[in-house]
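Notes from hallway chat w/ T.B., transcribed later so I don't forget. T.B. wanted the structure written out for a chain they're using in a teaching module, and asked if we could keep both sequence and structure tokens in one place. Agreed to drop them here.
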Amino acid sequence: MCYKEKVKIVKKFFLAILKNRAESEDLQELIEKVETLEEINEIIKNNNLTPLEKDIEFVKIIAKENIKKNRSIGMMSKMALISIINKNQPIKNIFFGLVDYMAMNNLNK
């Protein structure tokens, strides 16, 4: 999976969390314009984001299903990404875990 595809997945995940949140319109515009995982990290670090618990659980379910269905992600990477999502941690830590894994690993494996 190429870097641009990884960024696209992370952007989609993050935008899904921010969906239907009035205060996040500016953030949504910023996220749509980013081109690197580092830019997404900076946006998260610079904004105090507190998504609702039900939003988080909903997005986790969608993310896991998308990972399972994605043919360009290898079995080992699918298991690793899903295990990161399943962790009982704040969403920020889960998000950073996903970004770190995708930035440092070949997702085809």
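Follow-up for T.B.: The mean pLDDT is 78. Might be a good example for the class.
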